[in-house]
Specification:
heterodimer, A: 87 residues, mainly alpha, B: alpha/beta, Peroxisomal Thiolase, Chain A, domain 1, 14 helices
Chain lengths: 87, 416
């Protein structure tokens, strides 16, 4: 998966977790929490969806890597680069 | 014992608002209209593993009071509760913005809670070869027993006490009784009380009733729920909810509130004889106790809203209890609301009562529908069948709700 594919996947996950939010203007650099109403249970949902869709296990001490789109894509790129996009 | 009407106004409890979601109506007015038009809310339904069956399904607008995220986060019972509680507060004409939220108590009856979410999670992990790492972190907050009441509190920013009352199918009445008790104790100034059910979303309840030989089947869904009919063959499971705003009479009068009726008497007791089979002797004792607390004779009750669920033995047992208490009453009429909406479980008592309260104004007793051949063992003088009956001025409505493990509940509402 390319960084673009990973970003698209994260947007898809966020759409299900935060269905009331408009994600069209989500910026990659600022933290998700500064742009969206997300709490700790929502971040666990991101972790859970990645686990379900790609069998990725993110250690708890690395959850902070999911703070923004930029950091999330950067963190996931080496893990997901050889994976195919889930249908 | 002091009968209801002899209490000071600060101890008299009245119903001042009603919010509900029923399979045949999303408000008090819609429910009443459906009951007088003999309109059923039972439909064909399908649920995983169990397959095709019938159910009382609600179509209220969850999004009226919840964001999409709140619906996703929470439970169906929570959504039912939020809708009913918000509607009740709006109906009560309360100045909600300025209402002291720490003095509001939430008392919600449930038959069961958590089965839906647990079944969902087990289904989900099955797709992952039972890897428990995909078990949702939402499972605990969704399945704690106080969840439906807690979702109401979160949605409405209520900081007074909130909890559910687990009382099987007597829970709707039990919610009302708890609300009245807490108001009398001064633990709250406004009670949001009643019951909710999400039971149609658990296949287990259908499968269990089916294994028990107590799940209704019929080629026409609208005729499946037929208490007192000779050809009844079981329960139609339903979802729904009904929440009342309850206040002390002096508070209600001070704000010139509309008053649906006064809770003049109630009783709860226990069979202590069987897990599922009812005990008519104990049911009769519960009825007598409620009448005694209200200071009323059986002959003074205008309408008895029966609990009968359409099972072969349960209906007969309740009729035995009713005959023992009301056998000499020429004034009392009997009806059954499950014949329209199925069995709304934890909501049943509160919803069925709501269906009858309009009789205080219109003097009409809605009928038990779907009775083509009355079971002789269910014959009662005053049983209203298949078409509404004008019965004249109505002063007292008595509501029966009984449940598994032998829990019996009765509430009596009087017109003010």
């Amino acid at each position: 998966m390319t960084p673009g594919d990973i970003r698209e996947e994260i947007i898809d996950i966020l759409e299900s977790i935060a269905p009331d939010e408009d994600l069209s203007e989500l910026q990659d650099a600022p933290n998700f929490r500064d742009q969206l109403e997300l709490d700790s249970m929502d971040f666990l949902d991101i972790v859970m969806e990645l686990r379900k869709r790609y069998r990725i296990q993110i250690p708890e001490e690395e959850y902070e890597q999911l703070a923004s789109m930029q950091s999330t894509v950067a963190y996931l790129e080496p893990i997901m680069k050889d994976m195919a996009k889930a249908s | 014992m002091i009968a209801g009407q002899q209490l000071p106004d600060s101890q008299r409890i009245v119903l001042t608002g009603i919010g509900l979601a029923a399979p045949n109506g999303n408000s008090y007015a819609e429910l009443r209209e459906s009951l007088l038009a003999c309109r059923s809310g039972v439909s064909p339904y399908e649920i995983r593993y169990f397959g095709k069956t019938l159910a009382g399904i609600c179509d209220f607008d969850e999004r009226r009071y919840q964001k999409r995220k709140d619906v996703r986060r929470g439970t169906r019972a929570g959504s039912v509760g939020v809708y009913a509680a918000r509607e009740a507060v709006a109906d009560a004409g309360l100045d909600w913005e300025n209402c002291e939220k720490s003095r509001v108590g939430i008392y919600v009856g449930v038959t069961e809670h958590g089965n839906v979410e647990t079944e969902n999670e087990i289904y989900e992990i099955k797709q992952f070869d039972y890897d428990i790492k995909v078990w949702s972190h939402h499972h605990n907050p969704r399945t704690v027993a106080n969840n439906p009441a807690g979702e109401i509190a979160l949605n409405m920013s209520i900081t007074g006490p909130h909890y559910t009352i687990g009382a099987a199918c007597a829970a709707g009445n039990a919610g009302l009784i708890q609300g009245a008790q807490m108001l009398r104790l001064g633990e709250c100034d406004l009670a949001l009380a009643g019951g909710v059910s999400e039971s149609i979303h658990t296949f287990g309840i259908f499968a269990s009733f089916s294994s028990q030989g107590a799940l209704a089947t019929h080629e026409d869904a609208t005729q499946a729920s037929r208490p007192f009919d000779r050809d009844r063959n079981g329960i139609v499971v339903a979802e729904g909810g009904c929440i009342y705003t309850m206040e002390r009479l002096d508070d209600a009068r001070r704000r010139d509130a509309k008053i649906y009726g006064e809770l003049v008497g109630y009783a709860l007791n226990t069979d202590a004889t069987d897990f599922v089979l009812p005990n008519p002797e104990r049911q009769a004792q519960c009825l007598e106790l409620a009448l005694k607390k209200a200071g009323l004779a059986a002959e003074e009750i205008d309408i008895v809203s029966t609990h009968a669920t359409g099972t072969s033995s349960g209906d007969i047992q309740e009729c035995k209890a009713l005959r023992a208490v009301f056998g000499k009453s020429e004034r009392t009429h009997f009806n059954n609301t499950k014949s329209y909406i199925g069995h709304c479980m934890g909501a049943a008592g509160a919803l069925e009562l709501a269906g009858n309260l309009a009789a205080f104004d219109d003097g009409v007793c809605h009928p038990t529908i779907n009775v083509e051949n009355l079971d002789p063992e269910c014959e009662l003088n005053g049983l209203v069948l298949n078409q509404p009956r004008e019965i004249g001025p109505v002063k007292y409505v008595l509501n029966n709700s009984f449940g598994m493990l032998g829990i019996n509940s009765v509430v009596i509402i009087g017109k003010l």
